[in-house]
């Protein structure tokens, strides 16, 4: 059962929404239907900047990644930020996460980006085992200001 990665399509709405809800649940983030509709709208608005690739196996969506460009002023370059990556727990280990990361990297190369960057929770050990294999962990620490 191979995994195929492709851009999000309008027909994917229900399956994407179920996966996105699973992603929010995984991180314990309360989410409403309106919030999911807002993100869906962003992903389908070419002017917004957010993009989505989906992983499909046996004609069923099994994962997604959201990504976008961001600028590095110090390097005077554009990079890519992988905002979200989620694979259905039933299909973890299928290669879907690797395929999604590879596809975002390919998009980055097409766009002339220098780097693909993302963050994850410190205790997300299963995902980190993939990330440690495909990328270099940085020494940067993130901070948030709640507005």
How would you characterize the overall build of this protein?
The protein is an alpha+beta fold. The chain has one domain: Gcn5-related N-acetyltransferase (GNAT) (Aminopeptidase, 3-Layer(aba) Sandwich). Helix content is 35%, strand content 25%. The protein is built from four helices and five strands. The chain has helices at residues 13-26, 33-43, 96-111, 125-134, and strands spanning 4-7, 51-57, 60-72, 77-87, 116-117. It has a five-stranded mixed sheet with strand order 1-2-3-4-5, sandwiched between helices. Strand 2 (51-57) and strand 3 form a beta hairpin. The mean pLDDT is 96.
Task: Considering the chains and any ligands shown, give keywords for the structure.
Aminopeptidase; 4 helices; 147 residues; alpha+beta; 5-stranded mixed β-sheet; single chain
CATH class: Alpha Beta
Question: Nearest-angstrom radius of gyration?
Answer: 15 Å
According to CATH, what is the topology?
Answer: Aminopeptidase
Spans where pLDDT lies below 50 across 5 or more residues: none
Number of helices: 4
Per DSSP E runs of 2 or more residues, the count of β-strands stands at: 5
- N- and C-termini, Cα separation: 45 Å
- From the helix content, strand content and strand pairing, which structural class follows? alpha+beta
What percentage of residues falls in helices of 4 or more residues? Answer: 25-40%
User: What is the N-to-C order of secondary-structure elements (H for helix, E for strand)?
Assistant: EHHEEEHEH
Sum up the overall morphology in one term. Answer: globular
- Fourth CATH level, the homologous superfamily: Gcn5-related N-acetyltransferase (GNAT)
Average pLDDT for all residues: 96
Main β-sheet, in a few words?
A: 5 strands, mixed
Widest beta sheet: strand line-up: 1-2-3-4-5
Strand portion:
25-35%
How many domain modules? Answer: 1
CATH architecture: 3-Layer(aba) Sandwich
């Amino acid at each position: 059962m191979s995994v195929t990665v492709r851009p999000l399509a309008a027909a994917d709405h229900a399956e994407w929404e179920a996966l996105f809800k699973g992603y929010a649940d995984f991180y314990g983030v309360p989410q409403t239907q309106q919030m999911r509709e807002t993100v869906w709208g962003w992903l389908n608005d070419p002017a917004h900047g957010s993009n989505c690739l989906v992983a499909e196996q046996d004609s069923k969506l099994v994962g997604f990644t959201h990504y976008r460009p961001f600028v590095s002023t110090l390097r005077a370059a554009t990079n890519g930020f992988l905002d979200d990556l989620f694979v259905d727990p039933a299909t973890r280990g299928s290669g879907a996460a690797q395929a999604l990361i590879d596809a975002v990297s390919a998009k980055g190369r097409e766009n002339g980006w220098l780097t693909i960057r993302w963050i994850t929770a410190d205790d997300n050990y299963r995902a980190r085992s993939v990330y440690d294999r495909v990328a270099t962990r940085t020494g940067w620490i993130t901070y948030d200001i709640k507005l």
